[in-house]
Amino acid sequence: LGIYSKVDGIHLRAIATARTDVEARELIGPMEAEIRGAVGNSIWGEDEETPESQVATLMKKRGRSLGIMESFTGGLLASNLAEVPGHREFLKGSIVTGSRDVLERMGVPRELIDRFGEASPEIAEATALAAREQLGADVGVSVTGLSTGSEESGAPLGTCYTGFALGNDTSSVAGHYPTRRLRLRGRAATHALVELIRLLSG
Hints:
By secondary structure, the chain is an alpha/beta fold. The chain is 43% helix and 21% strand. A hairpin with a 2-residue loop joins strand 6 and strand 7.
C-alpha cells in the first residue's frame, strides 16, 4: 500500500500482482474494505476522480447550480471548477471580495461584518447566502479572508472559514492556513470542495 500526501488530501494506492485484473482486484478487495471501514465518510473519491469532478457530478445529478463568493482563495475555487468539462451546466459564477465595503454591496449586512469581523462563521454563512442570491444559484459557497488574530475576530491567526447555503440550511467549517502561499490557498479551495461533496451526498 502506497501512501502519498497531496494538496487535495492523502492518496492511497493499493497494488497487487496476479494473472488477471479480476484476480488482482480480488486480492485488493479485503484491504480496501478495511480502509473504508476505518475512514468512512472521509473518502471523497477513487481512481481518477478529483474533488472538482465529484462536485460537478453531484451538482449535475441533482440539477443544482452553484454560486461562489471567495476572499482568501482569490477566485481559485471557481477556477479549479472551471477546469471540469461541463462546468457551465452548474457553475453560475464567482465573486472575489477584498474589503468590507464589497461584502456589504454584495448583500452581507454591515452590522454582522462590524460585529464578527470578516473571518468568522457568521460572515461565512451570510456570504454563502449572498453568493446564492447575487448569482441566482441553488447552492452558495463562500471562503472568507484570513483572520488577523485580533480581538475583534476572536479566531486564531490564519484561520479561514468556508460557508455553505443549501436549501434552508447554512453551515460553516474552519481551516488554518498560516501563510498566503498558493499551495495553502489551493488547500483551502480543496477543503471547500470536499465539504461540499459531503453536504451534497448527505
